[in-house]
Amino acid sequence: MDTMKNSKPKKVLVVEDEADFRDMLTQILERAGYAVSAAPNGEEGLALYRTAAPDVVILDVHLPDMSGFEICRQIRLQGPRPQTPILMCTVRSEVSGVAEGLGSGATDYVLKPFQVSDMLERVRRVLQQAS
Asked: What is d(CA 43, CA 93) in angstroms, rounded to the nearest whole number?
């Protein structure tokens, strides 16, 4: 029996300032059965994190108002659910930022551009590890 059909969909928060990429990621995740909330900047992302209580957060590293690293640190320090898995997204040319992301408390990272199957597998894996 498929337990996904009998349980609530896992909630994913996407914080990404590029509208096209945010919309694409939202569609990919919704098609995979996730309930998605999305924010265009860090301030709105943190507000949604507090109200939507996501099961996983996908954070762009470069946002207009604050870095994804700062958002990650705030989630880890202020909660309300500091153990929430966080996936950092960065472009390949900035792979050196991965260490900073992991150091700020990120659970994992995804390099842009990514394969859809890779993103979905990383989301699935961090959710599985968190349960």
From this structure: 26
Per-residue model confidence as pLDDT tens digits over 2-48: 334 558 999 999 999 999 999 999 999 999 999 999 999 999 999 99
Q: What is the mean pLDDT of the chain?
A: 89
Angle at 62 between CA 48 and CA 85, to 5 degrees: 50
Query: Residue type for 128, please?
Result: Q
Q: Cβ atoms within 10 A of the Cβ of 21, count?
A: 15
Domains of the chain (ranges plus CATH)?
9-130 (3.40.50.2300)
Place of tokens 């994913």: 12
Edge-to-edge strand order for the sheet containing 108-112? 35-39, 11-15, 56-60, 86-91, 108-112
CA-derived radius of gyration, the chain: 14
Burial of 34 (0-12, 13-18, 19+ CB in 10 A): buried
